[in-house]
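step 4 of 6: structure.
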Amino acid sequence: MRGEFILVSDKHTDASFLIHHFLSFYLRAGCKVCFLGLVQSFSHYSAISQRLGVSLTQAREKGQLVFLEGLKESLGVLLQGEASKGTRAVDFLRDPSSGLRGLYDFVRDNVRGGGGGEEWGPPVLLVDDLSVVLSLGVSVGAALDFSHYCRATVCSKLQGSMVMLVRCEEEEEEEESDEGSERLLRGLIHQCSLTLQVQGLPTGYCRDIHGQVEVCWRGQCDGQQTQKKLFQYKVHDKGASFFARGTSSAVL
Amino acid sequence: MITPYCRLLPYLSLTDSCHCTRYQSEVQGRLFPCGYINPGPSASIQAHQIFHFYHIFHHLAISIHPVLQGTEAGGLILIQDSVNYSGRHLKSYINTTLKRYITFPWHEYFQCVVHVLGFEASEDELKDGLDITSAQRLHFHNAYSDPLSWTRNSQFTVHQFTLEDIGTLLKQTPQAKAVTLIIDSLSWILRHHDPAVIWGAVRAVVSLLHSILHQQGTVGRIRHMATSVITVAPGTRGLGEEIFSINEDLTVTIQSKLSHPGHTGMNTEESELADPTANLTFNLRLSDTEREAKEKLALPFDFSKEKKSALLHLGPSSGRILYEPDANDDYDPEDPEDDLDF
């Protein structure tokens, strides 16, 4: 899984279970993880990872995990205004038109292996989630530039992996739908090597099957076309289980 | 009016070493010497996989050939793709362009050079799959690692997409007679530059080296500028087209020419496309016995003559209502609804 840019997107449903999965997966694999948690607090992720068998606090203390707690950092900017000593990473809150360069600098500084201590595996960048910056005033182009730079640094230069979550809004009837998360999603799909598109079931709500995931490998595969596969999933307390369509244990 | 789709393709079938007739296509009234296609007076060629057009178009290739036997050359080829298809077609184009001039004698005087202005993919990714000789003749200008100078390590930034800077790039290979400039991708540049600027720069680039293109009208404008547009989309198309496919080694083979709708390959694919009972989790098909039973079924409101006459002539005791008013029914003929209040 080296040098991969994995894009997780969802529409009308919640794909954050995949982020939790990847987080615990990479931590267990011994990789150095840089996590940009822009939408939830550290304790939220910590509690869920505990159930998945990984302790985020320990990982953070050991230096394996670098966690940017977006909510806490933003408080510094929003409450104290100009005279804030918050990190540059959330500079985009102060000035949305400046783009996400500060955030990229944070990523770049933290994604290399730390000096001293243990040597970790290839670096991993996790972002949860990128579409929230759009609602904070950052333009789609700036978000795409950020992901481009992250990919150039993390995937190409350091041979690490990257996982980003993008959430699509409700479909609008107006032209405006072009401006928002749809455009961001399309731009990111062009950049990534693997997309996981999570949706609810087309036939409606089901207690035993929570939704479907469409996995799409782009470009680097042997065949001419992109390969697509569709799976259904169910989210349990200790993770999610995936199965082929129609083979849920509740059905068989 | 948007220019007609790719009436030209300088693609070369390397698997067919045979008779390759020189092919000239007419594009917008100008002769455009291009590669060798077998066989093929057919004018329109579309990609094997046709996808729906998204408004982000992706790659731009400018072919600039010097004056050749008196015919004007040069052109702007625009490759448009969508999220469903990856960029292998661009690599294939690069590959064939590189190979084109070394295979046929009347072009041997020219050394074809390909300059790639890469924003979207790194050099390794782009060169992956090309053979060594081709890779060596590819001049890659790295605009991928730092296009906006964020790490202050940039070799080519997006703001350098101007006439002078591109000219400097191309002057790095002064001995080349035929230069192809491939821009990967124009969408990237459009995010940071006003389309008018791009239009000016691209036009100027081509006119610097060679010919003057006719310009017309952000997507539409550049599309108009292109002498040929390749739209990449999935599916199959109709009559009078050649389809080609991109092979493992990034060469392109022209497959059968579809000149009539009765082509068997096409039919099965189309019927597959149109079959809604495929890929369902429940069964919509009928077995033979079920189909027979369905056909034998008499529908309730499907009246045959006998049934109609039987219904119209009612039997004596069918369907009559017999009403005996009981004690509670106080029927007053002058006040049938019993709501008058005196």
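step 5 of 6: annotate
 - DSSP finds ten helices and eleven strands in chain B.
 - Chain B touches chain A at residues 49, 54-56, 58, 83-88, 120, 122, 124-125, 144-148, 150-151, 187, 191-192, 234, 245-246, 248, 281 (CB under 8 Å).
step 6 of 6: archive
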